[in-house]
Amino acid sequence: MNDAFGTAHRAHASTTVVANYFPNDKMFGFLLESEIKSVDRVLNSDEKPLTAIVGGAKVSSKITIIERLLETVDNLIVGGGMAYTFVKAVGGEVGSSLVEDDYLETARDIIAKAKEKGVNLYIPTDTIIADKFDNNASTQLVPIGQIPAGWMGLDVGPETIKACAAIIEDSKLILWNGPMGVFEMSNFQKGTAEVAQAIVRATEKGAFSLIGGGDSVAAINQFGLADKVSYVSTGGGAMLEYLEGIELPGIKAIRS
């Protein structure tokens, strides 16, 4: 019996090889079953609107997930450090913000694909910037494409929070993977906290909400809201690979 979703993406002896010796006597545990059902509900349900919030530091680590989500979602909200790559890709000034210059063309491709598929791709419009990566740094609120040289974006601003909350609260299915800013620092956690609260409000109205990925799970726990959403995944890497459409070895070993 395998009940370890957190290691289902690894081909370990305990999760894959042993199962080969029990062709007729193997099964999923209740946790693994609920993980699979939760992700499948988000990816395969016809409940609409479906909104995915994808944040975190880098576009490069989320490309496959974003491309897969563009096939199913109605709304895709981009947040965190990866947002500045999108902003720079369309000509914005992002100062010293985290940017992956090698992925500017990828960001433009994603924007084009979203438009082609009729997906509402929401990129933040305002940002809290700081003159250094420090909780006690000097801060300003500016339009996200007008960040001065030497300043970096560390959280989303109130205009973005309001727009994201409206999209989230109008949704029937919600997937959250990745924070909106540097939530580990108290002065740059408001965007992430407000998105979490919007997901809670949507859940109270009947939406199904799935929180997955290490940082999102850490955030929902930090804000004490884990019991107010539908499901919090126990597998960071495993959930990301499952979302990407990869057949996880630990799941394949039980099903085959």
Q: How would you sum up the major sheet?
A: 6 strands, parallel
Strand order of the largest sheet: 4-2-1-9-10-11
The gross shape turns out to be elongated
Could you tell me how far the N terminus lies from the C terminus, measured between alpha carbons in angstroms? Answer: 14 Å
The helicity comes to 25-40%
Strand content: 15-25%
Count the beta strands. Answer: 11
What are the salient characteristics of this protein?
256 residues; alpha/beta; 6-stranded parallel beta sheet; Rossmann fold; 3-stranded antiparallel beta sheet; 11 strands
Give a short summary of the structure.
The chain contains ten helices and eleven strands. The protein is an alpha/beta fold.
Question: If you had to describe this structure to a student in words, what would you say it looks like?
Answer:
The chain has about 260 residues and is an alpha/beta fold. The protein has a single domain, classed as Rossmann fold. It has helices spanning about 15, 30-45, 65-70, 80-90, 105-115, 160-170, 190-205, 215-220, 235-245, 250-255; strands at about 50-55, 75-80, 95, 120, 125-130, 140-145, 145, 150-155, 175, 210, 230. Strands 4-2-1-9-10-11 form a 6-stranded parallel sheet, with helices on both faces. A 3-stranded antiparallel sheet has the order 6-5-8. Helix 4 packs across helix 5 (about 105-115).
